[in-house]
């Protein structure tokens, strides 16, 4: 059996923070504001995986009210999420994500982001595809106030009991 999940996240850009996307630090004069490192791409991936497995969302597993997750490197969350879904009998077939950002230009970083995410889940890097686009100057993202990401994940059951 296969199952699909969708994840979405958006965070405000703030001066004085590092910009982390897909586990990679991207050179930029602003970073994303949040309880963790605010990596919208990884957060969207976590939600896509959890949704496909029928396991809720990132806030259910790592609430922003819990001080243990203050400033956490979101790749650690993705590693934990993937372990949890594997324990429930699922494996990643593929993941496709889009990052919405007016700036910075993300094309030079996409391959490293995909590799970092694949490595933390111990999956083939070819199973993860990352795209980036602007919003042509429209809205919160177009004004440079924030960055968003959307991700879809396809899981396949590895045990007969998975997905029940």
Automatic annotation (TrEMBL):
Substrates-to-products reaction catalysed: 4-CDP-2-C-methyl-D-erythritol 2-phosphate = 2-C-methyl-D-erythritol 2,4-cyclic diphosphate + CMP
Top-level class of the enzyme under EC nomenclature: lyase
Superkingdom, natural source: Bacteria
Cofactor note: Binds 1 divalent metal cation per subunit.
Keyword Ligase part of the UniProt annotation: no
InterPro entries: MECDP_synthase, MECDP_synthase_CS, MECDP_synthase_sf
Annotated site residue numbers, Transition state stabilizer: 35, 134
GO terms for biological process, alphabetical: isopentenyl diphosphate biosynthetic process, methylerythritol 4-phosphate pathway; terpenoid biosynthetic process
Domain 2-C-methyl-D-erythritol 2,4-cyclodiphosphate synthase span(s) in chain numbering: 3-155
Keywords: Isoprene biosynthesis, Lyase, Metal-binding
Required co-factors: a divalent metal cation
Alphabetized GO MF terms: 2-C-methyl-D-erythritol 2,4-cyclodiphosphate synthase activity; metal ion binding
Binding-site residues, a divalent metal cation: 9, 11, 43
Positions bound to 4-CDP-2-C-methyl-D-erythritol 2-phosphate: 9-11, 35-36, 57-59, 62-66, 133-136, 143
Presence of keyword Metal-binding: yes
EC nos: 4.6.1.12
CDD domains assigned: MECDP_synthase (cd00554)
Pathway the protein contributes to: Isoprenoid biosynthesis; isopentenyl diphosphate biosynthesis via DXP pathway; isopentenyl diphosphate from 1-deoxy-D-xylulose 5-phosphate: step 4/6
Protein task: Involved in the biosynthesis of isopentenyl diphosphate (IPP) and dimethylallyl diphosphate (DMAPP), two major building blocks of isoprenoid compounds. Catalyzes the conversion of 4-diphosphocytidyl-2-C-methyl-D-erythritol 2-phosphate (CDP-ME2P) to 2-C-methyl-D-erythritol 2,4-cyclodiphosphate (ME-CPP) with a corresponding release of cytidine 5-monophosphate (CMP).
Family indicated by similarity: Belongs to the IspF family.
Subunit structure: Homotrimer.
Protein name: 2-C-methyl-D-erythritol 2,4-cyclodiphosphate synthase
Native source organism of the sequence: Desulfosarcina alkanivorans
């Amino acid at each position: 059996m296969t199952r699909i999940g969708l994840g979405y996240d958006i965070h405000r850009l703030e001066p004085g923070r590092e910009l982390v996307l897909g586990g990679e630090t991207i050179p930029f004069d602003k970073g994303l504001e949040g309880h963790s490192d605010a990596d919208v791409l990884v957060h969207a991936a976590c939600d896509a995986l959890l949704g496909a497995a029928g396991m809720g969302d990132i806030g259910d597993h790592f609430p922003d009210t819990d001080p243990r997750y203050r400033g956490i490197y979101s790749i650690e969350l993705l590693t934990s999420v993937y372990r949890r879904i594997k324990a429930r009998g699922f494996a990643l077939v593929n993941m496709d994500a889009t990052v919405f950002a007016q700036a910075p230009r993300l094309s030079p970083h996409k391959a490293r982001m995909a590799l970092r995410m694949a490595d933390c889940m111990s999956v083939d890097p070819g199973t993860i595809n990352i795209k980036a686009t602007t919003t042509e100057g429209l809205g919160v993202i177009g004004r440079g106030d924030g960055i968003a990401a959307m991700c879809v994940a396809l899981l396949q059951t590895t045990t007969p009991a998975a997905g029940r």
